[in-house]
Design brief:
314 residues; alpha/beta; two-stranded parallel sheet; globular; binds glutamic acid
Length: 314
């Protein structure tokens, strides 16, 4: 079996990645124009913290005559709430906040990730063909036992190096297991070295040095959908994002994203990692709580008759 036949055997797609590279040509931008995106997951109502991020996305696009688009990140199907996508769209409509591109509107769609399955799979196949991704058959039980071994040995946690059991399976071994109906996922075959450093020039936090990624992260899950990491690389490249403005909980994943862009041959966007907005109560500072703070829900402002302009200033 050739590498291409192997990739076709592992992942079925309607189109080859070249089709998508042609379908989504580079955006014609003038110097300084920014393309930003607001990328919520429909796992709950729109939260004050994400609204704050969306204002930055919208404002930078506006002041540079650029584009801000809305992308729905629904790849974690287990965490979706009913009507979550409409909830997000309605919340923004009610506040009279509009994106330049959004689901069913724009040249770079679909803007809902679950509708982009074929796109992600086609790029995962490219990596498989190049020997940069492989099928993994480890069950959650096996992963637990790897983790336990790492804890016992006080070793770093993760699927890497000698712990990456499926990394060196031969094509024939993998094919036999698939023909035997064993479920599998697709992992990156990381080329990184944890002892080497990469540098992120974050637009908010400044220069940050981090170890290279050496984890064979999951790129395609067993339901055929990508992980956040893989979808981030594929979408932000194909959709022409110039600046990724996101919560700083993603900062520690940056080495994974750096490697994914590199192996895919994609130019990286610039990154700005924003601190969350917290709430100060007398002497303590705490996170906004969806449960305790009714005003954390943005629909609250519309219900209270508070105009969007006031909310932006606030
Ligand atoms: N869906 C991710 C989240 O809600 C988006 C992060 C990003 O902007 O890349 O945290």
């Amino acid at each position: 079996m050739t590498n291409k036949e192997y990739a076709d055997f592992l992942l079925k797609t309607d189109y080859d990645y070249n089709y998508y590279l042609e379908k989504y040509p580079k955006r014609a931008l003038k110097e300084g124009q920014m393309v930003t995106r607001f990328a919520p997951s429909p796992t709950g109502f729109v939260h004050m913290g994400s609204l704050y991020t969306s204002f930055s996305d919208l404002q930078f696009a506006k002041q540079t005559n650029g584009i801000c688009y809305l992308r729905i990140e629904d790849t974690d199907q287990k965490r979706l709430i009913e009507d979550g996508i409409n909830g997000i769209i309605n919340d923004f409509n009610d506040l009279n906040i509009h994106f330049d591109e959004y689901p069913n509107h724009g040249e770079y769609g679909p803007y809902i990730q679950s509708e982009r399955r074929d796109i992600y799979a086609s790029f995962a196949k490219k990596l498989i063909m190049e020997g940069l991704a492989y099928p993994c058959f480890c069950s959650s039980c096996e992963l637990d036992s790897i983790r336990k071994e790492q804890i016992d040995k006080k070793d770093r946690i993760g699927y890497y190096g000698k712990y990456a059991k499926c990394r060196d399976l031969t094509m024939d071994e993998a094919i036999a297991r698939i023909n035997n109906n064993e479920p599998y996922i697709i992992r990156l075959k990381s080329l990184g070295d944890f002892n080497k450093k990469i540098v992120l020039n974050d637009l908010i936090k400044g220069q940050i040095e981090m170890p290279e990624n050496d984890i064979d992260v999951v790129i395609i899950k067993s339901d055929g959908l990508p992980t956040y990491h893989f979808a981030h690389a594929v979408d932000d490249f194909l959709m022409g994002t110039t600046h990724v403005i996101r919560g700083d909980e993603w900062l520690s994943s940056y080495p994974i994203h750096y490697e994914l862009f590199k192996v895919l041959g994609f130019k990286q966007p610039k990154y700005a990692h924003m601190a969350p907005i917290n709430i100060k109560e007398e002497d303590t500072v705490r996170k906004i709580s969806k449960r305790k703070d009714p005003w954390a829900r943005i629909s609250y402002y519309d219900e209270m008759g508070i105009p969007t302009e006031a909310l932006k200033l606030y």
